[in-house]
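Quick check before the chapter quiz. The format below is the same one you will see on the exam, so make sure you can read both the input and the output lines.
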Amino acid sequence: MISGLSHDPLWRDIFLPLSIGGQVHIPDVRTWAHGEKLAAWLQENAITDLNTTPTMARRFLTGQGGPLAALRRVVLGGEPTYWDDLRSFTRSAPAATFVPSYGATETPQIAALGVLDPGDIGDQSGMVPLGAAAPGFELMLVDEAGVRLSGEGFGKIVVRSPHIAHGYFDTENSTVFRVSDGIRTYATGDMAYRTAQGSVVFRGRDDRRIKIRGVRIESTEIESAIRELPEVVDSVVVMAPPQLPGKGLPASEKLLAFVATRESGSLSERQVKSHLAKALPAPAVPEYVSVTREFPIGTNGKVDLPVMLDEWRKEVHTRAVPQTIGAARSDPRFRTPADE
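Here is the expected output.
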Protein backbone atom coordinates (compact mmCIF):
# COMPACT_ATOMS: atom_id res chain seq x y z
CA MET A 1 0.00 0.00 0.00
CA ILE A 2 1.58 3.27 -1.09
CA SER A 3 -1.47 5.54 -1.01
CA GLY A 4 -1.40 8.31 1.58
CA LEU A 5 -3.82 8.15 4.50
CA SER A 6 -5.80 11.07 3.06
CA HIS A 7 -6.09 9.54 -0.42
CA ASP A 8 -9.50 8.02 -1.15
CA PRO A 9 -8.20 4.77 -2.79
CA LEU A 10 -6.88 3.87 0.67
CA TRP A 11 -9.98 1.86 1.49
CA ARG A 12 -9.53 -0.17 -1.70
CA ASP A 13 -5.84 -0.76 -1.01
CA ILE A 14 -6.61 -2.10 2.47
CA PHE A 15 -9.97 -3.82 2.43
CA LEU A 16 -9.92 -5.43 -1.02
CA PRO A 17 -6.84 -7.62 -0.46
CA LEU A 18 -7.85 -8.47 3.11
CA SER A 19 -11.36 -9.48 1.99
CA ILE A 20 -9.97 -12.09 -0.43
CA GLY A 21 -7.27 -13.53 1.81
CA GLY A 22 -4.36 -11.38 0.68
CA GLN A 23 -1.81 -9.41 2.65
CA VAL A 24 -1.27 -5.65 2.86
CA HIS A 25 2.34 -4.45 2.90
CA ILE A 26 3.07 -0.87 3.92
CA PRO A 27 6.51 0.75 3.43
CA ASP A 28 7.81 3.24 5.96
CA VAL A 29 7.88 6.88 4.91
CA ARG A 30 11.63 6.90 4.25
CA THR A 31 11.25 4.02 1.82
CA TRP A 32 8.12 5.53 0.23
CA ALA A 33 9.91 8.81 -0.48
CA HIS A 34 12.81 7.30 -2.45
CA GLY A 35 12.25 5.48 -5.72
CA GLU A 36 15.24 3.13 -5.52
CA LYS A 37 14.45 2.14 -1.95
CA LEU A 38 10.80 1.57 -2.84
CA ALA A 39 11.74 -0.65 -5.79
CA ALA A 40 14.02 -2.70 -3.54
CA TRP A 41 11.23 -2.95 -0.96
CA LEU A 42 8.78 -4.22 -3.60
CA GLN A 43 11.31 -6.82 -4.68
CA GLU A 44 12.17 -7.91 -1.13
CA ASN A 45 8.50 -8.37 -0.19
CA ALA A 46 7.58 -10.05 -3.51
CA ILE A 47 4.66 -7.66 -4.03
CA THR A 48 2.21 -9.05 -6.59
CA ASP A 49 -0.44 -6.32 -6.95
CA LEU A 50 0.04 -2.58 -6.80
CA ASN A 51 -2.21 0.49 -7.05
CA THR A 52 -0.39 3.73 -7.79
CA THR A 53 -0.36 6.91 -9.82
CA PRO A 54 1.77 7.24 -12.97
CA THR A 55 3.73 10.02 -11.27
CA MET A 56 4.62 7.75 -8.36
CA ALA A 57 5.38 4.81 -10.67
CA ARG A 58 7.93 6.91 -12.54
CA ARG A 59 9.94 6.98 -9.32
CA PHE A 60 10.41 3.24 -8.89
CA LEU A 61 9.49 1.48 -12.17
CA THR A 62 12.63 2.76 -13.84
CA GLY A 63 14.18 -0.47 -15.09
CA GLN A 64 17.08 -0.11 -12.66
CA GLY A 65 17.90 -2.50 -9.85
CA GLY A 66 16.62 -5.64 -11.55
CA PRO A 67 13.12 -6.77 -12.58
CA LEU A 68 10.25 -7.06 -10.14
CA ALA A 69 9.52 -10.63 -11.13
CA ALA A 70 6.69 -11.18 -8.64
CA LEU A 71 4.70 -8.12 -9.74
CA ARG A 72 1.75 -9.33 -11.79
CA ARG A 73 -0.72 -6.42 -11.79
CA VAL A 74 -0.21 -2.64 -11.68
CA VAL A 75 -3.32 -0.45 -11.50
CA LEU A 76 -2.58 3.12 -12.58
CA GLY A 77 -5.03 5.90 -11.78
CA GLY A 78 -5.54 9.42 -10.55
CA GLU A 79 -4.03 11.03 -13.64
CA PRO A 80 -3.36 10.21 -17.31
CA THR A 81 -1.06 7.36 -18.30
CA TYR A 82 1.15 7.73 -21.37
CA TRP A 83 2.26 4.98 -23.72
CA ASP A 84 5.91 5.82 -23.11
CA ASP A 85 5.23 5.34 -19.38
CA LEU A 86 4.06 1.79 -20.03
CA ARG A 87 7.06 0.99 -22.21
CA SER A 88 9.31 2.19 -19.41
CA PHE A 89 7.37 0.35 -16.69
CA THR A 90 7.51 -2.99 -18.50
CA ARG A 91 11.29 -2.95 -18.16
CA SER A 92 10.85 -3.15 -14.39
CA ALA A 93 7.78 -5.40 -14.39
CA PRO A 94 8.10 -7.62 -17.48
CA ALA A 95 5.43 -10.09 -16.33
CA ALA A 96 2.88 -7.57 -15.09
CA THR A 97 -0.47 -6.65 -16.56
CA PHE A 98 -1.05 -2.90 -16.52
CA VAL A 99 -4.49 -1.45 -15.81
CA PRO A 100 -4.76 2.25 -16.66
CA SER A 101 -7.95 3.40 -14.97
CA TYR A 102 -10.24 6.41 -14.85
CA GLY A 103 -12.51 7.58 -12.06
CA ALA A 104 -13.03 10.06 -9.25
CA THR A 105 -13.86 10.10 -5.56
CA GLU A 106 -17.46 10.91 -6.54
CA THR A 107 -17.91 8.03 -9.00
CA PRO A 108 -16.50 6.39 -6.72
CA GLN A 109 -13.12 4.97 -7.72
CA ILE A 110 -12.71 3.20 -11.08
CA ALA A 111 -15.37 3.99 -13.67
CA ALA A 112 -13.40 2.88 -16.73
CA LEU A 113 -10.30 0.81 -17.30
CA GLY A 114 -8.08 -0.89 -19.83
CA VAL A 115 -6.20 -4.17 -19.33
CA LEU A 116 -2.86 -4.26 -21.12
CA ASP A 117 -0.37 -7.10 -21.17
CA PRO A 118 3.24 -6.36 -22.20
CA GLY A 119 2.48 -7.61 -25.71
CA ASP A 120 -0.28 -5.00 -26.08
CA ILE A 121 2.16 -2.13 -25.55
CA GLY A 122 3.61 -1.17 -28.92
CA ASP A 123 5.02 2.05 -30.32
CA GLN A 124 1.93 4.19 -29.77
CA SER A 125 2.44 7.76 -28.59
CA GLY A 126 0.48 10.16 -26.43
CA MET A 127 -2.03 9.26 -23.75
CA VAL A 128 -3.44 5.79 -23.26
CA PRO A 129 -7.22 5.78 -23.93
CA LEU A 130 -9.52 5.60 -20.92
CA GLY A 131 -10.61 2.07 -21.75
CA ALA A 132 -13.99 0.40 -21.36
CA ALA A 133 -16.57 1.35 -18.75
CA ALA A 134 -16.41 -0.76 -15.59
CA PRO A 135 -19.40 -3.02 -14.84
CA GLY A 136 -22.32 -0.88 -13.69
CA PHE A 137 -20.88 2.30 -15.21
CA GLU A 138 -21.40 4.27 -18.40
CA LEU A 139 -19.13 7.03 -19.73
CA MET A 140 -20.85 9.70 -21.80
CA LEU A 141 -19.52 12.73 -23.66
CA VAL A 142 -21.72 15.84 -23.72
CA ASP A 143 -21.34 19.19 -25.45
CA GLU A 144 -21.40 22.66 -23.85
CA ALA A 145 -25.21 22.52 -23.70
CA GLY A 146 -25.18 19.13 -21.97
CA VAL A 147 -26.42 17.27 -25.06
CA ARG A 148 -25.05 13.76 -25.36
CA LEU A 149 -22.60 13.26 -28.23
CA SER A 150 -22.52 10.19 -30.43
CA GLY A 151 -19.67 9.20 -32.68
CA GLU A 152 -16.38 11.02 -33.05
CA GLY A 153 -16.02 14.31 -31.19
CA PHE A 154 -14.79 16.41 -28.29
CA GLY A 155 -16.83 16.83 -25.12
CA LYS A 156 -17.15 16.75 -21.35
CA ILE A 157 -17.14 13.45 -19.49
CA VAL A 158 -20.28 12.50 -17.54
CA VAL A 159 -20.34 9.24 -15.58
CA ARG A 160 -23.68 7.46 -15.20
CA SER A 161 -24.09 4.74 -12.57
CA PRO A 162 -26.23 3.70 -9.59
CA HIS A 163 -22.97 3.79 -7.60
CA ILE A 164 -22.48 7.56 -7.99
CA ALA A 165 -22.27 9.58 -4.77
CA HIS A 166 -25.48 11.33 -3.70
CA GLY A 167 -23.70 14.64 -3.26
CA TYR A 168 -21.27 16.50 -1.04
CA PHE A 169 -21.66 16.47 2.74
CA ASP A 170 -23.14 19.62 4.25
CA THR A 171 -23.07 21.41 0.90
CA GLU A 172 -25.88 22.19 -1.50
CA ASN A 173 -25.65 19.88 -4.47
CA SER A 174 -24.58 21.68 -7.59
CA THR A 175 -25.43 20.72 -11.15
CA VAL A 176 -22.59 18.17 -11.22
CA PHE A 177 -24.92 15.60 -9.60
CA ARG A 178 -28.12 14.74 -11.43
CA VAL A 179 -30.55 11.86 -11.95
CA SER A 180 -31.25 10.58 -15.45
CA ASP A 181 -33.98 7.94 -15.96
CA GLY A 182 -33.67 6.99 -12.32
CA ILE A 183 -29.88 6.60 -12.42
CA ARG A 184 -27.45 9.12 -10.93
CA THR A 185 -24.93 10.97 -13.08
CA TYR A 186 -21.83 12.97 -12.23
CA ALA A 187 -20.31 15.69 -14.43
CA THR A 188 -16.59 15.17 -13.82
CA GLY A 189 -15.28 18.42 -15.27
CA ASP A 190 -12.91 16.38 -17.44
CA MET A 191 -12.64 16.77 -21.20
CA ALA A 192 -12.12 13.95 -23.68
CA TYR A 193 -12.09 13.14 -27.38
CA ARG A 194 -13.79 10.09 -28.87
CA THR A 195 -11.92 8.84 -31.92
CA ALA A 196 -13.52 7.39 -35.05
CA GLN A 197 -12.54 3.96 -33.70
CA GLY A 198 -14.48 4.59 -30.48
CA SER A 199 -11.54 5.12 -28.12
CA VAL A 200 -12.00 7.89 -25.54
CA VAL A 201 -8.83 9.90 -24.85
CA PHE A 202 -8.50 12.27 -21.90
CA ARG A 203 -7.91 15.91 -22.93
CA GLY A 204 -7.56 17.71 -19.61
CA ARG A 205 -9.77 19.52 -17.13
CA ASP A 206 -12.40 21.99 -18.26
CA ASP A 207 -11.13 24.41 -15.60
CA ARG A 208 -7.60 24.18 -17.03
CA ARG A 209 -8.56 25.32 -20.52
CA ILE A 210 -6.61 28.45 -21.36
CA LYS A 211 -7.14 31.25 -23.85
CA ILE A 212 -4.15 33.43 -24.74
CA ARG A 213 -4.17 36.12 -27.41
CA GLY A 214 -7.50 34.78 -28.66
CA VAL A 215 -6.19 31.22 -29.08
CA ARG A 216 -7.71 28.43 -27.01
CA ILE A 217 -4.95 26.24 -25.61
CA GLU A 218 -5.17 22.84 -23.96
CA SER A 219 -2.42 22.44 -21.38
CA THR A 220 -2.40 18.68 -21.97
CA GLU A 221 -1.41 19.26 -25.61
CA ILE A 222 1.61 21.28 -24.51
CA GLU A 223 2.52 18.65 -21.91
CA SER A 224 2.29 15.90 -24.53
CA ALA A 225 4.50 17.89 -26.91
CA ILE A 226 7.12 18.38 -24.19
CA ARG A 227 7.08 14.66 -23.43
CA GLU A 228 8.10 13.97 -27.03
CA LEU A 229 11.61 15.04 -26.04
CA PRO A 230 13.54 11.85 -25.14
CA GLU A 231 15.10 13.45 -22.06
CA VAL A 232 11.71 14.20 -20.50
CA VAL A 233 10.02 12.04 -17.87
CA ASP A 234 7.07 14.28 -17.04
CA SER A 235 5.71 17.78 -17.59
CA VAL A 236 3.09 20.08 -16.09
CA VAL A 237 1.89 23.30 -17.74
CA VAL A 238 -0.03 25.97 -15.83
CA MET A 239 -0.69 29.68 -15.95
CA ALA A 240 2.22 31.53 -14.40
CA PRO A 241 1.42 33.50 -11.25
CA PRO A 242 0.12 36.85 -12.61
CA GLN A 243 2.50 38.96 -10.56
CA LEU A 244 5.40 38.47 -8.21
CA PRO A 245 5.62 41.34 -5.70
CA GLY A 246 8.76 43.39 -5.96
CA LYS A 247 9.93 41.87 -9.22
CA GLY A 248 7.68 43.62 -11.68
CA LEU A 249 6.64 40.56 -13.65
CA PRO A 250 3.96 41.52 -16.15
CA ALA A 251 0.45 40.62 -15.07
CA SER A 252 -0.55 39.49 -18.56
CA GLU A 253 -1.33 35.86 -19.35
CA LYS A 254 1.78 33.74 -19.53
CA LEU A 255 2.36 30.02 -19.41
CA LEU A 256 4.75 28.23 -17.09
CA ALA A 257 6.04 24.74 -17.91
CA PHE A 258 7.60 22.45 -15.33
CA VAL A 259 9.74 19.74 -16.90
CA ALA A 260 11.23 16.68 -15.17
CA THR A 261 14.17 15.03 -16.94
CA ARG A 262 15.84 11.63 -16.71
CA GLU A 263 19.23 13.12 -15.89
CA SER A 264 20.16 16.46 -14.33
CA GLY A 265 21.43 18.99 -16.84
CA SER A 266 20.32 16.94 -19.85
CA LEU A 267 17.89 19.58 -21.16
CA SER A 268 17.81 23.37 -21.18
CA GLU A 269 14.93 25.82 -21.13
CA ARG A 270 15.89 27.02 -24.60
CA GLN A 271 15.78 23.47 -26.00
CA VAL A 272 12.26 22.98 -24.63
CA LYS A 273 11.04 26.26 -26.10
CA SER A 274 12.70 25.58 -29.45
CA HIS A 275 11.00 22.19 -29.67
CA LEU A 276 7.59 23.63 -28.80
CA ALA A 277 7.97 26.50 -31.25
CA LYS A 278 8.20 23.93 -34.06
CA ALA A 279 5.23 21.88 -32.83
CA LEU A 280 2.70 24.40 -31.51
CA PRO A 281 1.30 27.87 -32.27
CA ALA A 282 3.29 30.73 -30.75
CA PRO A 283 0.80 31.46 -27.91
CA ALA A 284 1.22 27.85 -26.71
CA VAL A 285 4.97 28.23 -26.15
CA PRO A 286 5.44 28.83 -22.39
CA GLU A 287 7.06 32.09 -21.42
CA TYR A 288 8.77 30.37 -18.51
CA VAL A 289 10.25 26.87 -18.35
CA SER A 290 11.54 25.29 -15.15
CA VAL A 291 13.64 22.16 -15.71
CA THR A 292 14.28 19.85 -12.78
CA ARG A 293 15.42 16.32 -12.09
CA GLU A 294 12.32 15.25 -10.17
CA PHE A 295 8.90 16.62 -9.25
CA PRO A 296 7.78 16.75 -5.61
CA ILE A 297 5.00 14.26 -4.83
CA GLY A 298 2.15 14.76 -2.38
CA THR A 299 0.63 12.13 -0.10
CA ASN A 300 -1.89 11.26 -2.84
CA GLY A 301 0.93 10.16 -5.15
CA LYS A 302 0.38 13.04 -7.56
CA VAL A 303 2.60 15.97 -8.46
CA ASP A 304 2.54 18.55 -5.66
CA LEU A 305 1.88 21.65 -7.77
CA PRO A 306 1.68 24.18 -4.88
CA VAL A 307 5.16 23.13 -3.75
CA MET A 308 6.53 23.49 -7.28
CA LEU A 309 5.01 26.95 -7.65
CA ASP A 310 6.51 28.03 -4.32
CA GLU A 311 9.93 26.76 -5.38
CA TRP A 312 9.61 28.53 -8.72
CA ARG A 313 8.68 31.80 -7.01
CA LYS A 314 11.75 31.53 -4.80
CA GLU A 315 13.91 30.81 -7.84
CA VAL A 316 12.56 33.86 -9.68
CA HIS A 317 13.12 36.06 -6.64
CA THR A 318 16.79 35.12 -6.62
CA ARG A 319 17.28 36.29 -10.18
CA ALA A 320 17.17 39.76 -11.66
CA VAL A 321 13.87 39.85 -13.51
CA PRO A 322 13.25 42.39 -16.28
CA GLN A 323 10.89 45.12 -15.10
CA THR A 324 8.92 45.53 -18.33
CA ILE A 325 7.62 43.32 -21.10
CA GLY A 326 9.95 45.05 -23.54
CA ALA A 327 12.95 44.43 -21.32
CA ALA A 328 11.93 40.81 -20.94
CA ARG A 329 11.87 40.34 -24.70
CA SER A 330 15.34 41.81 -25.04
CA ASP A 331 16.76 39.61 -22.26
CA PRO A 332 17.92 36.30 -23.83
CA ARG A 333 17.02 34.37 -20.68
CA PHE A 334 13.35 35.22 -21.09
CA ARG A 335 12.94 35.15 -24.84
CA THR A 336 10.99 32.45 -26.62
CA PRO A 337 11.85 31.11 -30.07
CA ALA A 338 8.80 33.01 -31.35
CA ASP A 339 10.57 36.27 -30.41
CA GLU A 340 13.55 35.44 -32.62
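If your answer matched, good. Residues 245-251, 320-340 have pLDDT under 50 and may be disordered.
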